[in-house]
Amino acid sequence: MELVSRAIGPLQTNVHIVADARTREAIVIDAAIPGLPWITGEVEARGWRLALIVSTHGHWDHAGENAGLQAWSCATAAGDVPGTGALATSAPEPTAAAALLEPAAEHGLAVEGPDGVVRHPGTGHGAEIAAHPAD
């Protein structure tokens, strides 16, 4: 596994990119605004393919670049479903979501939210996560 991280935006949100060294597939965790140039630059420079975008919750400082990253990469986005302990997913093509999330779950991907609850992608309840602009 390879990991790069950077504090981004006015709230200095920790943005992480985790990649499988063998498959070169990457996951972005908490794509804060204005992180799109940094995230896409790191992914491209390292020869990775963005497969999954995970937001620990839906605030703009954690999910603000999700739509831009999905447009750039066609990756699936996953985010917290409040009160469920699960992540819901949204994919450009709904049939692609399950195929992308199953390998992540098999490899033990889990995200601990600010509430201390550990969430696993692919266990959502049908809600969709999209970018939340800073209103």
How many strands? Answer: 8
Overall geometric form:
globular
- β-strand percent reads 25-35%
Alpha plus pi helix count = 4
Kindly provide the radius of gyration, computed on alpha-carbon positions and rounded to a whole number of angstroms. Answer: 13 Å
Largest beta-sheet details:
6 strands, mixed
Name the strands of the widest sheet in spatial order.
Answer: 1-2-3-4-5-6
Distance between the termini: 36 Å
The residue ranges in which pLDDT falls below 50 over 5 or more consecutive positions are 92-107, 122-135
Helix content: 25-40%
Protein architecture, described:
Helices cover 26% and strands 30% of the residues. The protein has 135 residues and is α/β, with parallel strands linked by helices. Strands 1-2-3-4-5-6 form a six-stranded mixed beta sheet. A two-stranded antiparallel ribbon has the order 7-8. The N and C termini lie far apart (36 Å).
Please write out the topology:
Elements: E1 2-8, E2 13-19, E3 25-29, H1 36-45, E4 49-55, H2 60-63, H3 66-73, E5 76-81, E6 86-90, H4 94-106, E7 111-112, E8 118-119
Parallel strand pairs: 3-4, 4-5
Antiparallel strand pairs: 1-2, 2-3, 5-6, 7-8
Pick out its properties.
single chain; 135 residues; alpha/beta; 26% helix
Quick structural summary:
By secondary structure, the chain is an alpha/beta fold.
